[in-house]
Amino acid sequence: MLxxxxxxxxxxxxxxxxxxxxxxxxxxYVQRVLGIIASWALRxxxxxxxxxxxxxxxxxxxxxxxxxQFNDFRYISRNQSLRVVRGHVTWKxxxxxxxxxxxxxxxxxxxxxxxxxxxxxxx
Length: 123
What we know:
The chain is of the alpha+beta class. It has helices at residues 10-28, 30-50, and strands at residues 53-62, 67-76, 81-91, 117-120. The chain has a 4-stranded antiparallel beta sheet.
């Protein structure tokens, strides 16, 4: 007859704790870390060329959904500053026929083609 082990072993407890911490990090902090990395890259590139400062609080990239969401975006330069609290950029890569320069509005009533990219902020 096999006896059941009353207490889980030490390595399995450590593994459970590590997995729990990684899941919490993924759900709550990955977007903030991506924002810090993107801010650092933008600062590194634009500081030398135009003395402008970028900061992104959180960044979420959804490739399948075609969306980049950002929180607390700040742009600061010598004579101007811009702050966007929440926003997103959406692109529709799955559309085959989209607007182009040749599709300028004319006097004719024709169905309007959709656009591929959209920049918006929530109300």
